[in-house]
């Protein structure tokens, strides 16, 4: 649905995005932190032992991590606490297709008492909350279900339990979120504790609690766990396959892809790039079909949406490449499934219309020039994947004719030529072929930088941007390339020599005076480094696709991919980060889980299966 549960191994929330139940109230958007965390206390002979861990100004309290003996993913987050002869195993899992999280505790050792105090936030996941008088502190406790409705206009939260429940109505003040402090955002929050749930526990017994926007009975907890285990077994246990599953979500009756957790929604560019790896490489072609239908329904003036907003309003269309990536996603789907009828019946006319709009011209100055290449750009608008913007500052405007846009445009034209031939559309077949021939001739005439033996990054009139960036790799990696073998080899070699790292490709040559080796600091500092040296792991997919074209099958690629597996325990456990610092040791940054990062590793990995 787009919701999630997330925290750190020790249960210390370090981000405003952390929470036990972050619900997608307008799936897959409208994410709200409803249940922030659960304060847990073991009582033995009147002595209290807190299992939770929080940071407040100048202090960590309580220090439950002292009692944490083990953490594992099997496949759910599982915590083992040991307290004075009592062993508590805690599991957290979500219910697929619902805004529901289940927390289970199994007890061994001695008789004890156990207390749970839920801390609620009920706010947008980009925000924080502070004590306020608008909150309704009341609770309803009927038939083993507590109903919390602290604010009008927000969904109620249901807590299913089998405890003795007592209303508390207490605020906990000044939680500190370290990562938000690092990122230059509000790092303080107050959370409300509406109740305490008390249990008398014997060895071998369990405590279950279900937090949801739907009503459940606590007796369902074990059945929900078995169902989720069965579902995950069907998806596949391989780490990256399991990671891929977390990005595939519903939009209405169809499907889409969450670009990254914690804060991204579904973006057109990310979705089309990630589709082959997340769905085709994992054997889920039916989801790929639904995703293509979802975005086909939103094509407007020949453009795919750049993104759907967090609140589900009118999509934004400020992208030139998302639309062109759709052609490659369609080609990959049809090639993988041989479902050419689906493409003919549902997508071919839309794709033809997209080419026509680009030939005539559409939003933001996007249109085919007389030389057959695609121009794009408007003041104050970022249209390529290098889209960082701070206020009115577009960090990498790349107006004119960006190199990867020409590669994608040519690839799209050749795909359409092939489809037109397959479907007996001779008129369009000839037109697409002619357009592609013109684009190839013009591209080779103006984009080759003989001084560096590589491609210019952007051409804008007489201005040729010789910045050494990874964008030129797409002129080799895409199925239809405009370059001869000599130039293709030269591109791969310079990208490998100057931009390749153990975590992906740098976005700018280290010798460039604009190079920024660390992605740290406030929003201005980070956004001005975002595409100025920062490493992007998704680019390893096109790089190795191009590299294998030039060198043929080579075990070195498989070795590199195997070494990358160590990252799965560096940031988001079992996931691949959005970006890394350009400088060693290439620290992971940005989103802890990024769709196209996972997808491109899966797509390349499939080559060796």
Overview of the molecule:
This protein is of the alpha+beta class and 609 residues long. The protein has two domains: 4-233, Distorted Sandwich (Beta-galactosidase, Chain A, domain 5); 236-606, Glycosyltransferase, CATH 1.50.10. Helix content is 31%, strand content 28%. It has an eight-stranded antiparallel sheet with strand order 7-8-9-10-17-14-13-12, with helices on one face. Strand 8 and strand 9 (86-94) form a beta hairpin. Helix 4 (268-280) packs parallel to helix 16, helix 8 packs across helix 9 and helix 12 (485-499) crosses helix 14 (540-551). It is elongated. The relative contact order is 0.09.
Q: Strands, helices and their partners?
A:
Layout: E1 4-6, E2 19-26, E3 29-44, E4 47-50, E5 53-56, E6 59-63, E7 68-73, E8 77-83, E9 86-94, E10 100-108, E11 112-124, E12 139-142, E13 145-148, E14 157-160, E15 164-176, H1 178-182, E16 188-201, E17 206-212, H2 221-235, H3 239-245, E18 248-251, E19 254-257, E20 260-261, H4 268-280, H5 285-296, H6 321-337, H7 340-346, H8 348-360, E21 367-368, E22 374-375, E23 389-390, E24 393-394, E25 401-402, H9 403-422, H10 426-446, E26 448-449, E27 454-455, E28 458-460, E29 463-465, H11 474-477, H12 485-499, E30 500-501, E31 504-506, H13 523-527, E32 535-536, H14 540-551, H15 555-564, E33 579-580, E34 588-589, E35 593-594, H16 595-606
Helix pairs in contact: 3-16, 4-5, 4-6, 4-16, 5-6, 6-9, 8-9, 9-10, 12-14, 14-16
